[in-house]
Every structure is written in C-alpha cells, then in structure tokens.
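Lecture notes, part 5. Sequence design as translation. It can be helpful to think of inverse folding as translation between two languages: the language of shapes and the language of residues. The source text, in structure tokens, appears below.
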C-alpha cells in the first residue's frame, strides 16, 4: 500500500488506555512504533488516559494525543482493575464528537470495545480492534475465580463487535477463528522490532549471565527465574541476573531474591528508559530467559534474538512466545519449572557464545517483523484502497 497523497489525509483514531513511555509493555511499544509510522498514511490521533502533565490535547512527532479520561490505576491487587476498565470505556463515548475516519482499538480491557461499537455505529465508521491474546475459560477462572466465567463471556461478546480484528500472532488468529467461525474478519499483524536500532546498539559495559525483560507481573514468572538462579548457586554455579522492567511485583521479587540468598547476584533495573538502553543491556547478557506462563506474542524474545542473545522460554500452553523461540537455533523451550530453567541456563552457558555470523544467517526470518513491514499491513487493514 502506498502512502496517501490526497490533500485531506484520512484520520485514524487509536484508542488504548496505556501508552509508552509512561507505561511500558509490548502493546504500549507497538502503538508507539505504529503511530509514528502510520503518519505516512494518515493523520494519527491517540485517545488515552491523562498520563502527562499539561493540556489534555498535545502533539508529539506528528501524532496528536487526547486525554479522554483522568489517569486511573490500571491494576488492583496485581490484576487489571475492573473500575478502570469501566471508567475508561465510559470516557470513550466522548469520541462521539471527534473527527476520524476509522477507529483502531486495543482489545484490553474489553469494556471499551462495546462503547466504541456504539460510537462507530452512530458515526458510521469502521471499528478495528487489535487482539493480543485469547484466554480460555479455565484461565479466566484461575485469574478471577468465580467471576472468571462472566469475564470469559464478556470477552466472547467483545470479539463479535469489531468490523475487523488484527491478531498479534498467528496463534491468536487461530483462537479467534475457532471462537468466531472460519469466516471471521481476522488478519495477522504481529508485533515488530526496530532492526536498525538493534544493529546500532553497543553492549553495555556491565555484563551479566542472565537477563529477563518485561513487566513485573505475577504471570511473567520472574519468581521462577530467581528460584532457578538459587538452584544454580546451590550447585556452585554463581550466575548473575539482570531484571529489566517494573510493575506491581517488583518489591515482592526483591524480597524473594533476598530470601533465596541471591540478592547480591540480581540487578533490578526499573530505571531503563529508551529502547536503545534495553538493546544495550540485552547485548551485555550471555542468555535471555523468558519464564512467562502467559504471553500473546513475546516481543522480548524477538528483541533478544535480534540482539544475538540465546533465548530460553517455557512450554506453558498460554505462552505463545515459545513459537518464536522454536524458530531459532538460538532458542530453547523447556518445562515451566525452576529446575528445568536452571538446566537450560546451564546448558546454554556451557555451549559458549553463539557464532554471530551463523546466527544472523539462520535468523533472517526476523526481517518479517520489521516495524515498516508491520505498519504496511496495519495501514492496509485500517485504510483499504478507495
């Protein structure tokens, strides 16, 4: 699809309750990277909560940001806040008076999809939703207890609202078609990576044996990595670890590291700012571990492989990042246990550093995930030829 050349550019409304760099995660990085590149095709307006100080509407690098609600806490007791979800969905009704040609919304936290369906119907505009992962009924029950069955039903109802769904992985697309039927309007546009920025990054001077990158949430299972490190220390292998990221589990994980007797070997880095810092820290590690039990894509796995760092992740059924690791000779998939992760780390470290030239040749498929390629796919879904 070629960039639009009309005098009046179409207007794309991107709706998401959390944005980069105020909140860091895979979906936030996705919207940040896509929004800047989509300006080649359209005027891009992001509708979100009021994450910044100053006017409710501000322009930044050709993208206009609109605060349609106050900043509500995203999490309550380590889980996504239902109150925030309801309040943000009500705030989305303010878009009834906005100017746009198409709405593109993040699927979380679900309730806003119903409000946006109403907005799109009244305004006679298309509603496109990006779906990052599909939860099973059993996982919803594990996450919310008795309320899980209701949440599962809400998710299924929300799936039927968009005119088009963009799935963040082939596996999520398959789950969506199983729920909606084979004729459902679902296309795949995965998360991407800035390969030029990766190549330009130099390894940080402070090296480490193991690195993990991600939001510090309970389902990311960084606790399991710390337990694996403790096992290796007990065997006389004093590995060092770096934990890059922040989240509600940070203090609990720091306390766990102390109780396991490995705090001196674990470097918690919640102060990392730009992506180039992430790449530099990744390149300073010998192996990257991604112990999550649930992931809709796994951009951290993609980043580590692009940095030439071997990756270990788990075979947990809801961890779709395992499919990325399985594509690479530098990827390992092990059982979701501390003992299995410890053994996988031991094997990777014993193998020594990978042959970078060979690794680059074998991982040519990473070019499929360049942000430029992904943006073209998304632009095609949002702005079909007229």
């Amino acid at each position: 699809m070629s960039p639009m050349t009309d005098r009046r550019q179409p207007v794309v409304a991107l709706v998401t309750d959390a944005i980069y760099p105020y909140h860091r995660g895979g979906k936030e990085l996705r919207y940040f990277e896509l929004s800047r590149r989509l300006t080649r095709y359209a005027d891009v307006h992001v509708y979100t909560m009021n994450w910044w100080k100053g006017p409710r509407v501000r322009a930044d690098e050709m993208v206009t940001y609109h605060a349609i609600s106050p900043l509500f806490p995203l999490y309550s007791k380590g889980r996504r806040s239902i109150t925030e979800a309801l309040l943000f969905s009500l705030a989305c009704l303010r878009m009834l008076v906005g100017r746009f040609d198409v709405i593109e919304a993040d699927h979380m936290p679900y309730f806003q999809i119903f409000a946006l369906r109403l907005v799109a119907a009244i305004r006679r505009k298309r509603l496109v939703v990006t779906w990052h992962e599909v939860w099973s009924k059993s996982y919803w029950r594990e996450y919310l207890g008795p309320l899980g069955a209701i949440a599962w039903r809400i998710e299924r109802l929300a799936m039927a609202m968009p005119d088009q769904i963009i799935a963040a992985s082939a596996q999520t697309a398959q789950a969506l078609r199983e729920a909606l039927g084979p004729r459902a309007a679902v296309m795949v546009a995965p998360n991407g990576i800035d390969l030029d920025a990766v190549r330009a990054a130099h390894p940080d001077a402070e090296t480490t044996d193991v690195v993990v990158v991600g939001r510090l949430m309970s389902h990311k299972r960084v606790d399991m990595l710390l337990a694996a490190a403790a096992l290796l220390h007990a065997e006389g292998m004093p590995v060092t670890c770096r934990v890059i990221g922040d989240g509600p589990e940070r203090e609990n994980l720091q306390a766990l590291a102390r109780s396991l007797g490995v705090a001196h070997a674990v470097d918690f880095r919640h102060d990392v700012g730009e992506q180039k810092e992430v790449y530099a820290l990744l390149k300073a590690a010998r192996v990257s571990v991604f112990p999550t039990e649930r992931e809709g894509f796994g951009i951290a796995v993609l980043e580590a492989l692009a940095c030439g760092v071997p990756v270990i992740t788990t075979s947990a059924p809801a961890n779709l990042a395992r499919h990325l690791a399985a594509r690479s000779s530098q990827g390992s998939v092990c059982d979701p246990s501390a003992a299995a992760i410890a053994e996988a780390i031991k094997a990777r470290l014993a193998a020594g550093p990978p042959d970078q030239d060979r690794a680059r040749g074998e991982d040519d498929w990473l070019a499929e995930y360049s942000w430029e390629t992904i943006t073209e796919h998304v632009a095609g879904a949002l702005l079909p030829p007229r």
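The translated text above is only one of many valid answers, since several sequences can fold into similar shapes. The domain at 11-192+370-382 is CATH 3.40.50.2000 (Rossmann fold).
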